[in-house]
Design a protein that fits this description.
452 residues, two-stranded antiparallel sheet
Length: 452
Amino acid sequence: MDSKHIEAFLEGKLVLDCPKIILTPCSKAPDRKPLVGAGTIAADEPGKFLLKVFFEESFSLEEAFASLKWEVGKVIGSEHYYDLEASDILGNTWTSVRLLPDRSVGPNGSMIKATFQDLEHIDNGHPNIKGSVVEFYFDELIKVPLNTVVREEAKVGSEARSFSSGLKLARFTSNGVKFEIDNSSGRSVLQAVFETSGVSQVQVNRIFETLCFAFAHTKSWSVLVILDSTERKTLLHAVEPEPKRTRIGPPLHISHDHIISRSVWNLFDQYFCYVTKDDNSTHHPISLLNRSILESGKASLDVQALTLSVTVESLLMDTMKEFYAVSDELKNDICCAGKLINECGSLSPSFRQRILGALGAMKHPRAKDILAELKKKSLIDPALVTTYGKLRNQMAHGAQDPNADIQELFNQTSSVLVLFYQLVFLIVGYQGSFSDYGEYGYPTKEFLAELT
């Protein structure tokens, strides 16, 4: 797929004429056979591909109206889904999985329509490439701090008529990967060059996860190209226009100030280096938590507050439990209390079990305990810990006041966002500038704490 077709797709004008289309049942049941026809694949509507396949034979009425038998509330079974393989007029093969066809029957044949979001094409790689190249194409401009000047020259014949230059690229290296973000076309293109071939999907995911964290980005890429010496894989993703942008700001507001720009790329580097250590999880756990927070910024303020409270607790319990250890004295007290409870014959069995369960929970650290330890070591702003405690209790116990001060709730939620970012800074080892959303004007401050 060349740059012309990529541009056509980004502009919503891509149409593939396919003389041969095969729809293979996902279920291997004997009565499910492949469907072969001709048709088109079009990406002329935002957020979806539209497949049309034409057949000379007519479907039976039972096949045409199979959807009428689907039970409301029940997940549609895999026997109703088909995998797509389509050969376009140029000989390129395109694939997609788990399409749900909509059949229609007429006097002169039949037709299947299906909408889906992802389309894949694989062809030969470039023999001169020694490593791997990954390219993300976005259908919008992502605001990033640029650090590379591009000089352009306009010629008429061999005569230079005009010159122009400006910051249009961002170039940097992280964990041995060379990155370039190009905003010169009015849309962002992120390129990552690996020294080794055979880059995994997990490594590709880590790049996009880091972009989402560093810039509070919520929309998917539109085109993903993975290229090495043996194979070029192109994935198209039909992205719906984002109806509502998140209120969540990035850890550091983007600026072309040299110091701020350097801090942004330093944060990108530290986060990318940390999440790439995990090469097993399809999506890194911290990135999933960050995604939840970004999406909560599109909902109501109450939802955002609740999500932040739960997410901070998850981050602490999943990633930072080793920073707090239950003392031997407390363990001994719990043991003694348990003996007393068991020896007290006047207690009902159900009450005894509840007390013993509560005592057992005390053997494990709480999010509150971990935060207290971090505060004790001056690694976290004490004011943020206090605000988190108030907001978490209010959200967790359903004590929301319908007449609450919206400004106060917004201030608390913004402060807890800063706490989340600072905890991530500690985990990934970032030291540098950040935006303090807990203060009006969102001033830039320095985060210097470090886990030892």
